[in-house]
Amino acid sequence: MEVDKKEEIDSESSEQVVNPWEVSAKDGGKIDYDKLIDKFGCQRLDESLIDRVQRLTSRQPHVFLRRGVFFAHRDFNEILDAYEKGDKFYLYTGRGPSSEALHLGHLIPFMFTKYLQEAFKVPLVIQLTDDEKCMWKNLSVEESQRLARENAKDIIACGFDVTKTFIFSDFDYVGGSFYKNMVKVSKCVTLNKAMGIFGFSGEDHIGKLSFPPVQAVPSFPSSFPHLFPGKDNLRCLIPCAIDQDPYFRMTRDVAPRLGYSKPALIESSFFPALQASTLLSSLQLLKGENGKMSASDPNSAIYVTDTAKDIKNKINRYAFSGGQDSVEKHRELGANLEVDIPVKYLSFFLEDDAELEHIKKEYGEGRMLTGEVKKRLTEVLTEMVERHRRARAAVTDEMVDAFMAVRPLPNMFE
Amino acid sequence: SPNYLLIFLVLQELEIDYSKYEHPPVLTVEAQAKYVSSSEGALSKNLFLKDKKHRYYIISAMVDTKVDMKVLSQRLGLGKGGIRMAPEEALGELLQVSLGCVTPFAVVNESARDVSLLLDKNFKNQARCIFHPLSNDVSISLNTAGLDKFLKSIGRDSVYVDLEANANPAVGKDQPPDLALYVPAASVVVPELSNKASSIQTPPTKNATSEIIKPVASAKPSKPAGNVNSVSANSVSLEFKNPEKFVEEILNRTSALLLSEAKGESVEALPGTLRKRLTSELTLLAIMYKNTAYTEGFHAGKNYKPYRL
Predict the structure, then answer these.
(1) Are A289 and A275 contacting, i.e. CB atoms less than 8 angstroms apart?
(2) Does the beta carbon of A406 lie under 8 angstroms from any beta carbon of chain B?
(3) What integer best gives the mean pLDDT of chain A?
(4) Which residues form a coiled coil (chain A) (predicted)?
(5) What are phi and psi of B302, to 5 degrees?
(6) Contact present, A4 and A196 (Cβ < 8 Å)
(7) A57–chain B nearest CA distance, Å
C-alpha cells in the first residue's frame, strides 16, 4: 500500500521527518534518501531511465538528472512508454508563495520543469497555492495573492513558454470543473486517512483538512477544460521535491476510483543550506545537509536578488567548507567532499561534468584549495543569478496576466 | 551629461560636505593643480584599466602613490602583463566621461556597473581629496567618509587598497593574489572596440597638447552603449522587445565569447564551444522575447473592439 502508516508519524522525534511542512534529519544525521524511498514506496531513477530520456529527447539529459538531484520517481517509465508510442503528457508543478524572496532552492523544480517542457514539447500547468499559505502561514488573503503574483514573475523568468504554460492561483481559479474534481476526491478520503497521511490533529482548523484535494486535482486533465477538452486520458507528470510525495500518494490512491489515470512523479532531493554547524555533537541538528534551505535566514541561502558582491560574501563567509584547517594539512589529507557545501552546490549547478570531476579530484586530494572552489562557485552562481535577473526584468504585470489568463493553448504540443 | 548634475543632488541630499571648484577644462593633474590649490585637498590620479577578459577597473590614487601595473596585475591574479590602460572608446561607453576625466564618481553610471573601483588607502589620511565629478572643468573636494557615503548610496562598498604593498609580490601558491576578490564578475563588451583599432587613452601625467582635445561643451561620448543614462532602474530592456536590440544582444554575447575563447582554441573547435556555452542563455533570451510579443498580442486582444457599422 502506498499510504503511510499512522505509527510512523508518531515516532517523529527519533526519526527523520519529511512532509510538506517540515523537513529535518534524524538527530545528528543527514537525510537518508534511501530510507525515504523505502518508506514512501517510490522508485530510484536509475541510469537506464536517464539513457532512455536521452534517446527519446535527442538531447543531453538535464544536469539535475545526471547528478542525481532528481533521483526518485513513480511511474516515470510508464510515461516514457506512452511517449514512445506517441501519447503525450502534460506537466504539473507548483509553488506555495509564502515569501517574496526566492532562493536557488526554490528555482530547482522550475529549472527542471522548464527542461522537461522543452525536451518533451509538452504543456505545463503551474499552481500557486496562495490559499495554502494564507491558512498555514496566517497571511491575509490579499498578501498571499500578492505574493503569488510576485512569485509568478520569478517563475516566468525561468524561461517558460507562454504558448504552452498556464499559471493559476487557487484563489482565482478554484471553481467550476476544478472544484467538481475537488469534491470527487474529498469523498474518497476519510478524516482518519487524511490525519494519517498528513499528521493533522483535532487542533488543526478545518481549512487545513480540506486543502489536500486542491493540490491533488491539477493532476487530472478534466480540471482544465479550457486546456484539455476531451482529453480525459492525458497523463500527468509531476516534478516536485520529495516532501510533496504525501499529497500525490493520496491522489494516486484516489485516481482509479474516479476513473482517472494516476499521475506520475519525478522527485528531487533537498537543496542544502549554506552552513552546517561544526560536527561537535551528534545530537546537534546540522543545518547544512540536514534541513532544507530556509527562506527565513537570509544567510542560509543565495537569493535571486543577491548582487554579485552578496553572492561572493555569502559563499566566502557562510558556505561550509570540507577543507582542512591549514594549507599543509589540506595538501596532505585533501578535502572532505561529503560535507563540503561548495562542491555540493557545484554538483547542482556546474553543467560541465568533466570540470566537476576535475574539481572533485583535485580538491579531494588536496591540490586545490577551498578558496578556488568557492571562487568557481561564485562565478557559476553569479552568472545564473544575473541571467535570472535580466529575464525577470522583462516580466511585466501584463505578462503575468497573459500567463494566468484562462485561455486555450492551441500549440501546446509543438 | 545628466549624471553630472545628479552627483551634486545626491551629495546635497546625503548632506555630504564638499567644495566645488570651476576652472577651464584640464586633461592632466598638473593642469588641475594650477587651479585647485593643495590646501583644498589632495589631488588624485585616476586610471581606467582593462584586462584581457574585457573586465574594467578604476584605480584612484594619491598623485605620489606609485602604481606599478605589473604588480597590480599580479595582485589581481591576472599574471604579469594582464592589465593595461583601457582604450578611449571605453571611457565614453562605460564611464560616460571624456579624456582626462576618470573619477570614482563615474561608477554612478549604469554602464559602469561591472567596473571595479579600487581606492588608494592613503586617501584616508587626508582631510580632503579632489576628484572630477564626471566633467573636467569642475573639481570637487570631499573627505573619504563623504565619498564612502556617496558610494554606499548607489549600492557600492568602498574598497581601499594599499597600492604600494607587496612591491615584490611573488604571487603564487603560498601568497595568493590578494586583490583577486576585486576582479569584476562580468566582462563587458564595448561595441566600438571590435570595429576600429583601439586608440590608447592618454595617461594623466603625459602632456596632451598633441592630441585633438574633444570640445568640452559636447563632452558626451559619441555613441552611448544603449544603456539608460540615469541611475534609476531600467524599464523592460529593449532586447526583449526590439528586434534590432535582440539581434545586437545575441551578437554581443557571441562576440564576447569568441574573443575570450579564440586564443585558446583551434578554429574548428570554436563553433562547438559557442554552441555549448551559449545555447541555454540565448534560448532564454528568445523565450522572453516570444513571451513579450505574446503579451503584447494578449493586450491587443483584450482591448479589441469589433468593427461597428
Answers:
(1) no
(2) no
(3) 88
(4) none
(5) -60, -35
(6) yes
(7) 16
- Asked whether B237 and A390 are in contact (CB, 8 A), the reply is yes
pLDDT digits (tens, 9 = 90+) for A67-89: 999 999 999 999 999 999 999 99
Q: In this complex, do B283 and A159 lie within 8 Å of one another by their Cβ atoms? A: yes
Is B295 within 8 Å of A393 when comparing Cβ atoms?
no
Return the CATH fold of A29-271. Rossmann fold (3.40.50)
Tell me what the mean pLDDT of segment B136-148 comes to.
89
List, as one string, the DSSP characters of A128-192: E-HHHHHHHS---HHHHHHHHHHHHHHHHTTT--GGGEEEEEHHHH-SHHHHHHHHHHHHTS-HH
B182 to chain A: closest CA residue: A309
For chain A, give every domain's residue range.
29-271, 287-393
Residue B290: list chain A partners with CB under 8 A.
Answer: 161-163
Q: Which of A32-36, A232-236, A325-329, B126-130 has the lowest mean pLDDT?
A: A32-36
Interface predicted TM-score of the whole assembly (ipTM), two decimals: 0.81
Q: Which long-range contacts (CB under 8 A, 24 or more apart) does A137-143 make?
A: A137/A98, A139/A98, A141/A171
H helix or E strand, kind and range, residue B117: strand B116-120
> Does residue A371 belong to the interface with chain B, where contact is any CB pair within 8 Å?
yes
**Which residue, chain included where needed, has cell 486582444?**
B301
For B237-256, the pLDDT digits (tens) are 788 889 999 999 999 999 99
Task: Kindly state the average pLDDT of the residues A4-28.
Answer: 56
CA distance A83 to A91: 13
CB contact under 8 A, A162 and B294: yes
Q: Which CATH code fits A287-393?
A: 1.10.240.10
Candidate from A3-17, A51-65, B129-143, B242-256 with smallest mean pLDDT: A3-17
